[in-house]
Every structure is written in structure tokens, then in C-alpha cells.
Amino acid sequence: MAxxxxxxxxxxSIVGAEHVRVEPGELAxxxxxxxxxFHAEPDAVVFPATTAEVAEVLELATERGIPVTxxxxxxxxxxxxxAERGGIVLVLTRLNRILEISREELLARVExxxxxxxxxxxxxxxxxxxxxDPGSRTAxxxxxxxxxxxxxxxxxxxxxxxxYVLGLTAVLPTGEVVRTGGRLWKxxxxxxxxxxxxxxxxxxxxxxxxxxxxxxxxxxxxTGVAYFDSLADACRAVTAVIxxxxxxxTLEFLDQKCVAAVEEFAALGLRTDAGxxxxxxxxxxxxxxxxxxxxxxxxxxxxxxxxxxxAEDVARSEALLAARRCSLPALSRLNSLTILEDATVPRPxxxxxxxxIDAIAARHELMIATFGHAGDGNLHPTCVLDPxxxxxxxxxxxxxxxxxxxxxxxxxxxxxxxxVGAAKLPYLADRIGPEQVxxxxxxxxxxxPARILNPGKLGS
Amino acid sequence: MAxxxxxxxxxxSIVGAEHVRVEPGELAxxxxxxxxxFHAEPDAVVFPATTAEVAEVLELATERGIPVTxxxxxxxxxxxxxAERGGIVLVLTRLNRILEISREELLARVExxxxxxxxxxxxxxxxxxxxxDPGSRTAxxxxxxxxxxxxxxxxxxxxxxxxYVLGLTAVLPTGEVVRTGGRLWKxxxxxxxxxxxxxxxxxxxxxxxxxxxxxxxxxxxxTGVAYFDSLADACRAVTAVIxxxxxxxTLEFLDQKCVAAVEEFAALGLRTDAGxxxxxxxxxxxxxxxxxxxxxxxxxxxxxxxxxxxAEDVARSEALLAARRCSLPALSRLNSLTILEDATVPRPxxxxxxxxIDAIAARHELMIATFGHAGDGNLHPTCVLDPxxxxxxxxxxxxxxxxxxxxxxxxxxxxxxxxVGAAKLPYLADRIGPEQVxxxxxxxxxxxPARILNPGKLGS
Lengths: 460, 460
Known about the structure:
Chain A is α+β, with helices and mostly antiparallel strands.
């Protein structure tokens, strides 16, 4: 259903005609995000450049009952930015200025369209670290990271996006601008709207400015790799590392299928005959890094590792981390459809969860490879299949439903860091219960009485 | 207004008659918390022992429109647990079991009535650290810490209570039990109710179980002290420490008035002729601690410290930290009424804020001493006066209103870690704006349609 001309004209008068797209050919690129199998064409794509323009667009949308789906780079993996009910896709990428980086206050203030990597690089140039590092960091935006509470490879030691958001400027669907938090680590004046908006997936308000905490950049870092007979063995080593009082900056694993795909893809010299690879690493002063890597190596050896190697230099460290970072592209080459999930379980349940995933894959005759953030219990089971094989696609949906149920049964969750979006909304009540789903709906109404913001997602 | 007999009987039938108090003499101890000048006698004090009992009490209260004020140890400093509208004070101290401490999962699960120190000690006995350490830790409860998002002396390096809450069991005012989060660091299934409840000051739900993250206990720690001509000089040193890339575990300051009072009280051998004392410290391996303390000492010297000393041993470190911890009791001895506040500003504004506080105190002819968490910009200006001097009490209120306004003007907040409660509700709109106050009210209604939970506080 096309947008009425008077609405399109009103949008053009707010942001300028060149920043409103309504022609079908122009809409197609905004009908999808990075989530396979989800597709919905919006009626208009709007590119505001200021908080005031966002407020005017939202006020108009509330008045006229037009759905609005906010979007950054569209790298999310849960269809959180697919315009399920049509209406406007509101793209925030023109709001792309780094407004401030302060070394003395250890913070950055940015507009939401700045990419994660650009913020990290700008901080790095000042000797500072922006800790969250989602896999899509070169493309993903800070606004999108906040909206999904993005995680990444450093979650165990450094936490996730939530831990770094100090303040937000956000526009309510009714057009009011609120400023939550600010420049302070400590501020308890009012409910914690900063954290409530973080991870709210564009369903409560549109974020137009973000203040994040930075850390002094660590002096150095180091990485090691351990091979195990089985992923279950690797998972037990993970628990042993944590139990030994170590909180590594990196603790990632790849199953045999991932290692094989990565080696085929990138020829990093990985050993492909082992059942699993565990990547471990830390950062800090040279002494601390060397000490912690040696202890982790010891623990892995005691836990039965087939082989443990420490990267001899930065280049080798980078290569090992690349092995983890390229798991998804490497697997994606194996067939035309790749479905990446992120069920998460308590660390001591990792081995059991991996066994269950393998059993589910076997029963449904699917290729599911698993890699992930072992230190966080955050698994990325990844199904590679032929999208034209309707039977396989159907079996994949069934398999993931079983995987989510298994994660919940083991005390885990349906999504560790990707979000709920449209893709996992059907499983939400199984995780948090119907009372809490009803409560989310009421909270949604407190922000968005006309329910125009990202309908069909969280709070629906 | 006494509680109708049928309500008192209904409460007795839920928790047992011996756990309901309705006689005036029994109510008096629950008419106050640690906040001076706030007093309101409840109609009943109820001591439930289980989540189910809490749910029944709340369901009854919602049905009959009885206000309920949840309370832990009553150590809060913003009248958050004073029953402004009468009704029931719901004391959670019978829910006092440590349910689990897991070294392999780095977490603890406790009931809300467990004291902070008991949790910290139990974690310590397993080689683990519960990082939040509010000043009232020996008496305060974990439930109260979560409800107020308590801070403490380690905020700069370790963050506040919010950063450690993984999951909550909470009872809605309508009696439904919700379980938010869980045992995972990464879990984005739904809005972040865990963080929304943290700091909600008992106005949204009653917390009946808490899962918190623990850390491996640091191997050691060390402390140093620097004296400066003025508090402004000390504040500049704080900014210099941070700008040098250091994030110390401790960075606390005392002004000359505090140092004098502490020395008089505890005879720790502090130098009382300097304008200010800066306490700095770090934890970690011996090498890291020694290196960081040396760098901090250097920075303080470069910033013009009169004298810098590193504690030679643990006993001296403890004595220095005691100097900071006993600031409040030491000041309290100077007169019968002590009003402690916690305005917070961005670190680079600390010196200006302290100057403003001193000017405000002088203008109102008040004794206001200031100490606080310099690393967080979190100031505790403390007014000591005679409660029978009505003129002075009135001037103190005016002075604090001016102090809050100055903090907000400098980009800070009216409360860094104590909370809003009844005491700072009049200043909330000045900090967060009327749109956000209205939004808080709507969120409150989403949880508490009958508005029975802690009325007259946040969300009112």
C-alpha cells in the first residue's frame, strides 16, 4: 500500500524531497536487513539529518497512524529492521558525526549513524578503547548497537554495549525529545531509561545521540589456540579457565565444521583434524598478558587439549582472531542460505548444549556448524542450506525452535546478543513468560500510545 | 489512620500473626530510615518470608488500595523507605538466605535481605569479589542496594550495582511474579527489566531474589595518599590521573574540614594543615598495583601535591581507607543533625563544583564539609547543624536546592548513588525535564495500575 501523497509531501517538507524515497525501485534495498527469509517493502524510506527532523517525522507518523521502523546499517540478524507493517523506514545514517571524544572524561558523544569501527578507530587514535566489538563492526552503527545491545568478542571481560552507554538523546513516538543519563557513570535520578532504551530494538523511541564510556586502551594483547578432541572437551576447558580465576578478553570456540570451512576459506594453517578449536586471549601490560596466557595454556593442557600454541607475535594473533571473525563468511560459502542463531546457556551447560545442537541437526538432516563466545555461553549455531529446498528450510525452522527450547531448558536464553526482532518474537513468551510479555506491552504503550514504532517486534 | 481490622487479619493470615505489627509502639522504628527530617508512621509493618507471601500481600494491597513501602535495612539517605502515605511497610529482612555461590559461573544468587557485607564475605571465602561496596555495606541489604542502584568506593574501576545484577525475581504490585534476566551476562530477550528495576526504588515491583555477577578476587591492593593546598588542586589531580590512562580502584577525596574531623575522631595520623586529601589505590597483581600506584603518585606530584605517601603495608592501607569510610560518622559528631547529599558532576567540573558548594555554604552561614568519590565526580557535601535551630535547617534546605541546581548547570545530576526517594523528588524535573517525569509516571502505571507501591516517590 503506497503512502498517501499528502503524507509523502509532508515528509518531504520535513527532511527535503531528496531525502524521501517512495518509488518501488528505491524501496527494495530497505525491504531486508541481514536476516535471511524476512522481507517486507516499506511505503517510504526517510533520511532525517537532525533530532528535530526525527521528532517532526514521528509526530506526523503518530498523528496519521503510519508505522515507523528505525534503521541504522541494517546489519541485524533478527529482522528487527524489516518493516513488517509497511510504512516508513527511518534511516539514521545521515546523523553520522562524532561530536566529541574526551580523554579526560573517558567518553565519546556521537550521532547514531556513526559506524562502530569509526568510533573505535577515533577512540584508538586518542589512546582509548571503545570496548564493544560486534562482528559487524565495520558496517554496523552505534545507534543500531545501542538499539540491539550488541555484544561481541570481548563480552566476558568487558561486557556488552549496555555497560558503556552513559546517556542518550531519544525522540518519543509522540515527538517529545528526552535526554537520559548524561556524562556520568553514576546517576540515579529517575528510572534507568538509558538501559531500558538500550536493547529496545527501536520499539520505544528513536535514538539520535549517544554518549558512551571509553577506557584507556590496553598496552598490549596476546592470543593462543588450543585444539581438543571434541567441542565438549573444549567447553569443559572453558569452565576450567573461569574456575581458575581468569577472565580472559577472548575465549571463543569453533567446532570442527567451522574450522574446516575457515581453513578452506582463509588458509590460516589451522589444524582441521581436531574436534574443536578454542581461541583464548587477554590484554593489558605485557607481564599480565604473558602470565595470563601461560596460565590459560596450562589449564587447557590439564583439561586434555591435543595441542596448545601461543601466537608468537601480533600478526599471528591477528590471524587467529581472523579465524573466529571469518567463521560466518566461511560457512556462508558452503551453500546459498545461512541462518545464524545465538542461543545462550550458562557456561557449565555449554558442552551439553552443543551435544543437543548436534543431535537436533542430525535428526533434521541439516548441516549446523557451531562457533561462538564460549566465555559468555553465547553459541552461534549456523545452518547452511539450499534456500530452494523447501523441505530443508522447513526442517531448519523446526530445528531452531528445538534449539531455542533446549537453551531455555538449560537455564539459557533464545538470544544472547542478536535481539528478538520479528524473527524470535514467536519464542519470547517461552523464555520470559506470558506475564512479562504482557508487561512489555504495557511499557511499550507508555512510550508509544499509537503503537507506530516498529510494530510486529518487541512489545507487540 | 489505622489499618481496618479485616485488612490486618488478612495480612496475618498470609504471613502469620507474629509477622504483622500494628501497635503504635511497634511502628515507630519503621517511621524513619537513615534520612534526617523525614518521618511518617505506617499503619502496619509486615515481614513476609517467601516470594509467594509477598505476592499475596501485594495482591491484597492492590485490591484494597493500601500503600506498600518495601524496605530492607532502611539505610538509604533519600527517604525512599519512609511510608509517606501510610499503609504497609513491607520489610524483606526475613528473606535472608544466600542460595548459591558459583565459582565456575562467577555468580551468586541471594534473597534480598542478605546484607551486602555478608554477600561480599561469602564471595570472598570462595576467592571471589562482589564489587559494589556502598558505605553502609555492613547493614545495607542486597535488595536495597539493587532498589537504589547503590554505588560505593570502587565505582570508577568496577561500576555500580547495576553492572552486577544478572537476574531478578520480582513481584508486581498486582501479584504476578516475574523473573528477569537470569544467570547470563548476555541476554537480550525482551526489554531490560533487570536494569529498569535496578534503581527503581521500590516503586515498580518488590524484589525477592537477586542473581549477581562476581569477579575473581584481585590478588592484592595498595593505597596512597596525597595532600594538596586546596580541594580545587586535588580535583585537578584527579583529572590528570584519568587523563594519564589510569582507572584506579580508589580515587577519593576529603576536604580540610573532613580531614580535621576524621583526625579528631580516629587519630589516624593525617595531616590536618592541608587544604585537601586525595586517597588513591588500585588492586590486581603486585606488579600492576605497584606500577599504577607509582604512576598515580607521580601524577599527583606533578599536579602540585604538597606530599605524597604510599601505604607501606596492608594495615596502613586499611587505615587510609578507614579515613574515607569514617568521614560521615566523624562529621556527625560535630552537631546533632547531619545532612549528607550526593550531587555529581563531570570530573573536569569537580573543582568548580566544590568552589560553588563552599560559596553557597558561606552565603547561608552553614558548615558544609565535602568528601566523595572523586573518580566518579560524585560529591558528598555534608551539612552539620543543630536541628533545633529552625533558621539553620531552613537555610540548609535552601543551600542544597542551590547545590543541586549548580550540579545540573555543570552537566551533572542531583543524585549520583543515593537515589531520589521523597527527599529529592522536588528536584527531579529540574534534572530530567517534565517530559521525562511524565514518561516515568506512565512507566509506573504499566507496573502498578493502582499506584500502591511506594507512593510519593519515583513515578508519582
